[in-house]
Design brief:
By secondary structure, the protein is α/β, with parallel strands linked by helices. The chain has a domain at 2-180 and 195-212 and 245-263: TIM Barrel (Alpha-Beta Barrel), CATH 3.20.20. It contains ten helices and ten strands. The strands form two sheets. The protein has an eight-stranded parallel sheet with strand order 1-9-7-6-5-4-3-2, sandwiched between helices. Strands 8-10 form a two-stranded antiparallel ribbon. It is globular. It starts with a strand and ends in a 34-residue tail after the last helix.
């Protein structure tokens, strides 16, 4: 296993910075209330000004990163909402705004498995000649009962079919998953990892269940109906989750949190760097942080029968 940053650095000879974008698309799931962990911003990065064009967003952020980080290469990351939820012509007009920059190395497109088809994938694959292209699918869980509970609006079969179709076009897939979802046991989470391994996806982003202002989870959390993971619990789950994935997978994210203005809980999630260092330490066999995510690094699958569920009292699972 490799970290995405290391993979990109090896390929391009320098650190490659992702620039999150809001292309102004919506989400097909919003009509049914949206996912219960999401708010109206649709995972928009805090630095994004949605009134700006895609090109303006790129120019502003690239200029900042060049000055602040001495950055040289960038990934245009279509992050907010569902970035294939439009006609092919509209999508092309949006994606094309990310081209024409000398230092743009790649394009990553975040979307849903029920919002792609052959024509859209054909368009996306056309950028592979000049860019590192990734398609990021929100899965969150491989269990349909969980997907229904969190109001994802699709099934695991929808995800599986989208992955298989995407592979026909030679586009690498990164799956997003959330650990600590309501009602899920550790065995449930590990089952998700094993199903991803069978699909041979190229990348994964692991998220922590956290509470955002304006999300469906906010009210439930304040009513005491949602239980959240402690930092050490999350670290152990991530390490075991990784051990069940394919050995050559690229790990694009180990944790995540909302912006400080939107983030409600858990507060420890705001210590992103500290959490990542703890994960690296565990994977390194307790010998301190390591960049290697190889299975020979001391990471082992724990055969546990822990059936502790995340607290959620609205319905039995």
């Amino acid at each position: 296993m490799r970290l995405y940053n290391d993979y990109l650095k090896d390929k391009y000879g320098c650190k490659v910075h992702r620039v999150a974008l809001d292309a102004g698309f919506s989400c097909p799931n919003m009509e049914s209330g949206g996912c219960i962990y999401c708010n109206s911003k649709g995972s928009r990065a805090s630095y994004v000004v949605p009134s700006e064009t895609i090109r303006q967003q790129l120019e502003t952020r690239i200029q900042y990163l060049r000055k602040a980080k001495n950055a040289k290469k960038f990934i245009a990351y279509f992050q907010a909402h569902t970035n294939t939820y439009a006609s092919v012509d509209e999508l092309k007009a949006a994606y094309d705004q990310a081209t024409g920059f000398d230092d743009i190395a790649g394009i990553s497109i975040g979307t849903r498995p029920d919002a792609v088809d052959r024509e859209k994938l054909k368009l996306i694959s056309s950028y592979k000649e000049n860019y590192e292209v990734w398609l990021e699918y929100g899965l969150q869980s491989a269990h349909d009962r969980t997907l229904k509970l969190i109001n994802r609006g699709h099934t695991f079969d929808d995800f599986s079919n989208a992955v298989k179709l995407t592979k026909e076009f030679g586009i690498p897939v990164c799956a997003h998953v959330i650990l600590g979802l309501p009602g899920e046991t550790k065995l449930d989470m590990m089952a998700t990892a094993k199903k991803l391994a069978k699909l041979n996806i190229e990348g994964v982003k692991i998220h922590l269940l956290h509470i955002l202002k304006g999300s469906g989870l906010e009210k439930l959390y304040k009513e005491g109906k949602i239980g959240l993971l402690e930092q050490d619990e999350y670290v152990k789950l991530v390490c075991e989750f990784l051990s069940n994935l394919a050995p050559d997978i690229i790990v694009q994210r180990l944790t995540g949190q909302g912006s400080k203005d939107d983030h409600i809980a858990p507060l420890w999630a705001l210590d992103k760097i500290g959490t990542i260092e703890k994960i690296k330490t565990v994977i390194g066999g307790g010998q301190g942080p390591t960049k290697s995510f190889d299975k020979s690094s001391g990471l082992r699958t724990e055969q546990s029968r822990n059936t502790k569920q995340s607290k959620f009292s609205l319905r039995p699972l």
